[in-house]
# Entry
Amino acid sequence: MSTQRLKRAPGSSLSLRSQSRSKRIVAAEALVLVAMVTATVGGLPGSSSATSTPSLRGAGQECRSGPGPDTPFVPVPFGNASGDGAPAVQFSAPVVSMVADPVQPGYWLVAIDGGIFSCTSPFYGSMGGRPLDAPVVGMAPTPTGGGYWEVASDGGIFAFGAAQFHGSMGGRPLDAPVVGMAGDVATGGYWLASADGGVFSFTAPFYGSLGASAIANPIEAIASDAAGTGYWLLPVQADPLDGAAPYLASRVGTALAAVYDLTTGQLWSTGAGGPQTEASIVKVDILETLLNQSGGQGLTPSDQSLAQSMIEHSTNTAATTLWYRAGGVAAISAYNSAAGLDQTTPPTCITCVGFPWPGWGLTTTTPTDQIELLLKLVRGNSLLTGGERGYELTLMEHVTPSQAWGVSGGVTPQATVALKNGWLPLGATGGDWQINSIGWVSGAGRNYLIAVMTTGDPTEQYGIDTVDQVSSTVWAALG
# Structure
């Protein structure tokens, strides 16, 4: 065994949609703490080879065709990948890894309790239903098929089928938890990687690690090349909203934000609180609904003129006309449901007592729902054609200069920004402003969606400055 380990590096973490200031629990201790909730503790000290006797939980569950309504993890095939669907039973523990069968068109899923779910590929055994000292964090197939290994966060290795046990870190001191493993096609051995960048090689050659240099973000995965002549370590992508935290903590009012990196698929969010008033960003939703209803035929010339005025100049009368043209609350709600917006609620009135502005501006939403809405514009989907998506994005790219603040803050001229802003005085004396900005930023090595919502702003400019600052921070962080 060859090893290189670092001193513990402080970790940043990624966010999940279900949490405010969400953290994707890949970084070190957090993964262990969550996993230990479902993992059974106290057995198999040091970890070693295990037999292939089926276990009680997650024991060789077969896959069936098509995703089911209760399956929490459904692999989505692309290209020539086989679409075997999801396991026929509900998982009893979260899935932590998926690996392809190197011999035949199938794959395995492994859960943190050690349960293995085989999809077309043979089942060789699992640790599901057995006591574990630490949660399972990954698996790797033997290079020539016929078996696989499971690895736990304490470095324990469990071999099944033709997989050979070459050693483990189980029972040995670690500076940081193990986060994954990779098999070596040349020797039949394997490598383990820890969150601090350490690499542990068993039978496989040791090619190096991050050594004694500090790392900014924890490692979350290791992968070997096809020839067994090297490996890669993948660091966690830092939360681009972290840098905005001190500023947001110092301001008055409530700010919510979400960022989705279209390159890596990572979603981050920040801020505490429920849905906020949309103001004019709802106009993006109105136009998407209309385009969806057109059946790929696009808008009439008169509606195109209204849409341009609504998006590029934020004209309220145009928005009201198109709101009714789309079918009002029922139609907008139906489209939102189809688009996956589950935290967006249209208003009950358009002419509202005591409110001088059109009622559609009182639609409430969250930044993560707005990310879902923007995704329908930047990625192919069944709701909008490519032409319809390009049409709306072009309007958002040509917002009148006086309204081009917001998520364009800090962005260089070399990048393309498609945005829509909203501003609305909620207080009778103008001391409670709602300021929002949503959009797509692409170019200069970046490609992301961003939504920022603020309420309780003492002035309109105060809210605009807040959105600009958050946008500048995100732009810099993703560079």
Observations:
- The chain has nine helices and 20 strands.
- Residues 16 and 22 are 5 Å apart (CA to CA).
- The longest helix spans residues 460-477.
- Confidence is low (pLDDT under 50) at residues 1-60, 64-72.
